[in-house]
């Protein structure tokens, strides 16, 4: 199963419009960043670090497109991803590159938290975000969602000041949206999770079928 991107432009617009500035009035509230208005062609995305696992020279490269608010992506990361890591990434056969997809402001906030600890902590934080998706994504909007995401950051060893700085980084948020737009357009992504395996677009599928695709690439 996948979550559909009906139109790439519509997805970007939803993020841009939905990503409103929030300056909660309650003590300890976090001022989140303003709307991302820049077009992808106007934004230098070279500062965005590609999060990856596996050997740089692995014979197979998989680019995963996923959203932190996509239930099917969460299901993939709690099952197939762990099998993929054990069978192929940890054995040096596959390099996995993670590319964010943003359906909404909450997925963007989650990405800012996941990236807050840098490459060393990214996949650990991402695992916690996916594992608890049904909890934080259903919290009270927007305060509850933000607090739940910040809680995940603290569990990962991030300091409150560090978390606040990350989630209020408007430049980073706008750059991430532009990066997502460029990547998704280049690879013709219209659903999540989706995968580009050695340059070929592959839809989400049962693990045995997914494994067969990888094995075929390894056999070349």
From TrEMBL:
<feature type="domain" description="Thioredoxin">
    <location>
        <begin position="28"/>
        <end position="219"/>
    </location>
</feature>
<dbReference type="InterPro" id="IPR013766">
    <property type="entry name" value="Thioredoxin_domain"/>
</dbReference>
<dbReference type="Pfam" id="PF13462">
    <property type="entry name" value="Thioredoxin_4"/>
</dbReference>
<dbReference type="InterPro" id="IPR036249">
    <property type="entry name" value="Thioredoxin-like_sf"/>
</dbReference>
<comment type="similarity">
    <text>Belongs to the thioredoxin family. DsbA subfamily.</text>
</comment>
<protein>
    <submittedName>
        <fullName>DsbA family protein</fullName>
    </submittedName>
</protein>
<dbReference type="InterPro" id="IPR012336">
    <property type="entry name" value="Thioredoxin-like_fold"/>
</dbReference>
<comment type="function">
    <text>May be required for disulfide bond formation in some proteins.</text>
</comment>
